[in-house]
Amino acid sequence: MASIPPVNNRREVFANFDEATFSKAHLRAMLVAGSGFLVDSYDNFVIGLIVPMIAWEYYHQGSLPSSRADGWVKAASSWGNAVGQLSFAVLGDILGRKKVYGIELIILIFGALLCALAVWPVNGEADNVLIMLAVWRFILGIG
Predict the structure, then answer these.
(1) Residues 6-41: pLDDT tens digits?
(2) Which of 24, 56, 113, 136 is the most exposed place for a label (fewest CB within 10 A)?
(3) Where does it reside (predicted)?
């Protein structure tokens, strides 16, 4: 059985990073990862601004009628994030990261478009807007 030689100096571990040069591939990877983080962060934080607007539009008050509805709408994306991270991590190992990132992007765009369309009350019920928004935000979170 082969053994790994001990590293006496911690600097030896990171010596390859010190000698590496910065290339266009590094810049592209940083921009792609950064834009993904930006979109995800925007999605998670903007709902705090949107929920009072929805409450004012459909319920004519500054907050939703129940804190439960408020929580469902705000947490749906986080639940979707957890499902998406777990499932796409496994799929990324099987199918490859580039292909899976493209699939995630398609799901994200699809979920965002459906969130934008969740503004019409179905059967005249304002609560249905919240249900649709929570479902579409869950799908958005998966992507």
Answers:
(1) 666 667 777 777 777 888 988 988 888 888 788 888
(2) 24
(3) Membrane
